[in-house]
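Tutorial handout. Part one gives the primary structure; part two gives the three-dimensional structure as tokens.
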Amino acid sequence: VQLQASGGGLVQTGGSLRLSCVASGYTFSSYTMLAWFREAPGNQRELVAVISSGDTTNYADSVKGRFTISRDNAKNTVYLQMNSLMPEDTAVYYCAARRYFSSGYRYVGDYDYWGQGTQVTVSS
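Part two.
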């Protein structure tokens, strides 16, 4: 299984970026949960957004109304559209996936597979 994240970069406050994560190894629709986490220097990796195989989504309070997670099973890709970016969104963003069913989704340990990370930097 391989997750390949891309789309990070440098953007000014108020700008937008779209992250993409292409998954290979299993039928994409078999991933029960796909998520984006982020890790800022000195901080623990935290959940940003998650989408289930049934397209149910959940977001961290800090990004609600600004970020949107989506999945395209035909393209084996999960996206994170990030709007109204703020300096506190600066972090390395990681995509994550799992195939088993579980009620948990908020923590690093809830996922089997991880992408390599893509840097997002928001300048003030």
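Part three, for discussion. The chain has no helices and eleven strands. The longest strand covers residues 17-24.
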